[in-house]
Amino acid sequence: MEIKELIISLVEDYSYKPMMFHELSEHIKFKGDKQALLSVLEELEEEGKIVKTGKEKYVRPEMANMLTGKVQLNERGFGFVIPENGKEDVFVPAEFLNGAMNGDKVLVKLKKSKIEGKSAQAEVFKILTRSNPTVVGTFEGKKNFGFVISDNKRIGDVYIPQDMVNEAVTGDKVVVDLVEWPEKNRSAVGKIIEILGRKWDPGVDILSIAKSFEIETEFPSEVLDEIKAVPEKIIEQDIQGRKDLRHLRIVTIDGEDAKDLDDAISIEILSNGNYLLGVHIADVSHYVTDGSSLDDCAASRGTSVYLVDRVIPMLPPKLSNGICSLNAGVDRLAFTVMMEINKKGDVINHEIFKSVINVTERMTYKDVTKILEDENEELIKRYENHIQDFKIMRELSEILRNKRIERGSIDFDFPEVKIILDEKGKPVEVKRYEITVSNKIIEEFMLICNETVAEKIFWLNMPFIYRIHENPDAEKIEVLDEFLHGLGLSIKGKNSIHPRTLQEVLGKVKGKDEESAVSMLMLRSLQQAKYSHKNEGHFGLAAKYYCHFTSPIRRYPDLFIHRVIGELIENNYSLSEKRYKVLMSFSVEAARISSEKERLAEKAEREVEDLKKVEFMADRVGEDFDATVSSVTSFGFFVALENTVEGLVHVDNLKDDYYVFDAQKHCIVGERTNRIFKIGQKVHVRLVKADKEARRLDFMLEDSLDQPMVKFKRLNKIKKK
Fold first, then answer.
1. pLDDT in tens, 249-276
2. pLDDT per residue as tens digits for the range 654-680
3. Given 3-state DSSP classes, what are the helix, strand and coil percentages for the chain, each rounded to the nearest 5?
């Protein structure tokens, strides 16, 4: 065990007694340089793992009435700290923030305990790490200085000295590099490093969101120089040593507007009645080589980001839309996974190899669905050579899905959204994106391919990046179970839960009003999937082995896996000890970065969707809508419209009664009328406000529109001794 881990393990043991430096050194029998040990202790202090008391003793934060966590600021100036230990949030008044900004990791000193339902109160004792090195906002110029009003209302205004304005003018959307952090009664100071455009220009709003999440929109010059050497089409020497599959009927099936096509499929029935499924994935690793500037850039980006009307790609378009994209009618280099699958859905034989392919047809989800579901005569005639293949694909995908469900895989049925923008970036349509039979074909084929690859490499014990989904937190499952009890449902085996248990609950509410509510609460009770160099299984899929192999154009873990498999194929499935260590070390770091970048991408994508939904609804203020209660809070309840748009009905707008929040039952109840609003309930609402800046929609119940507010005093019941 490393010295750092040893110290953490020691102080986190609840039998630990506070020790001074020399006592701790003797206790762990440290024989090295004392300065080295001191450096480790200082590093742990900086990370908030330990605290040095006034008596020079080292303790875990809790022993000093402190805790470590992230700051979450409110627009009104105060904040909360979300503890790392998973305990309840603590309240930090504005005057006790001591310069901490939204997202900062801090060490706080508890000042008041939790009483009468109110959060514990604390003061920021030390800022451990800053999370906002740059700020995106709108510049407002003054005579000899300026301010940037942050797009994130949780971050205060940034003061810009005259010599750091860099030609920005009032109304410019800018990126600011912070040069001085805020202090009590003083704003942060910044320097404008980039002007994105006028705040009202088309596309600047989406670009600003990308920049606020530090998503790079341009490629560095060394990468652009490097890709000049990449050919426009494959050359003969690239094909050597690969299996030639250009004779196969191979198709891609993607959305109509997709340009980065990284997966293709082929299928046939073998003489023994089994299916031979071919999943052919673009061989991006052939062009993005280990140690290149292109690879370094892709690793740091981690993923492509999809922001409604644009893609910020992980790889330059010359690769993502060009030589790597499996466009129809042209030769392409690929990694192929050929799987023989029986009628039960078992992969009884498989082979992974490098190939050269030529996609026969570029199909869309829409057209394949029309062929299979609507039996569209025009499309059937046009693609007559592939019709039988599509039918076999549907047949196999249903077998695979049934097997996956039987083992306990959880299928959430959340609506996806499609937002259409005009040429000026204004949303003209927001609608549900329908998941069809063709989407499900591709989903099942990619899932089985990813599982097959992960299992193979696991048993070879080679460096790898797995996609893992850890078992859910017991406390969160307990909360979910309490809610389900109110619906007459329960979770079996809560202490050692199997995904099948949760899948069965979803099956019982399928098609009912409460389905979306149960699905959302269940999702919140689960851990987030992430990447790891260790295989820990995938709870949600009920899979022992899983990875991401099928999208190397847009995800770095897939690209890394291709590189590892490519080296294994070339070296007869062995690696030198030195190369093994290099790849293993890199897999740890790549998994961590890819997980972080995935989270940022998801947040940016969600932020852009929310922005465009509010913008779309702004023209519909005053209109009435049928809606469903999607979640309930102490300050009201959120409603979801058919087109996936969500907004708030605030308790202040419920005029017929005084409503009290019941956290256990996830509902609010009128004290006088006993009127209840709960998750899954159907309501009729009117949109009364659309705030684009706050990304917020406010609704009122239609039956509250013309009612006066009911006013009455709440009586405090005093118990007599």
1. 999 999 998 999 999 999 999 999 999 9
2. 988 899 998 877 889 999 999 999 888
3. 35, 30, 40
Domains in the chain and their CATH numbers? 3-61 (1.10.10.10), 65-129 (2.40.50.140), 134-201 (2.40.50.700), 229-470+534-607 (no CATH), 474-526 (no CATH), 621-704 (2.40.50.140)
The CA distances from residue 445 to 239, 263, 404, 442, 626, in Å, are 26, 10, 12, 5, 37
Give kind and range of the element (H or E) at residue 8.
helix 3-12
> What CA–CA distance (Å, rounded) separates 415 from 516?
9
Cα 596–chain centre separation: 9
Residue-wise pLDDT for 21-39, tens only, equals 988 888 888 888 888 889 9
Query: Nearest CA to 314 among 600, 662, 20?
Result: 600
| Beta carbons within 8 Å of 112's beta carbon, 6+ residues apart | 120, 121
Q: Hey, what are 61's tokens?
A: 């934060």
3-state secondary structure 353-388: EEEEEECCEEEEHHHHHHHHCCCCHHHHHHCCCCHH
262 phi/psi in degrees, rounded to 5:
-110, 0
CA–CA distance, 630 with 648 (Å, rounded to integer): 10
Residue 416 token pair: 């996806």
Cβ pair 583, 463 in contact under 8 A: yes
Kindly tell me the number of DSSP H helices and DSSP E strands found in the chain. 17, 33
| pLDDT for res 118 | 64
Residue stretches of the chain with pLDDT short of 50: 711-721
CA 519-605-79 angle, to 5 degrees, is 80
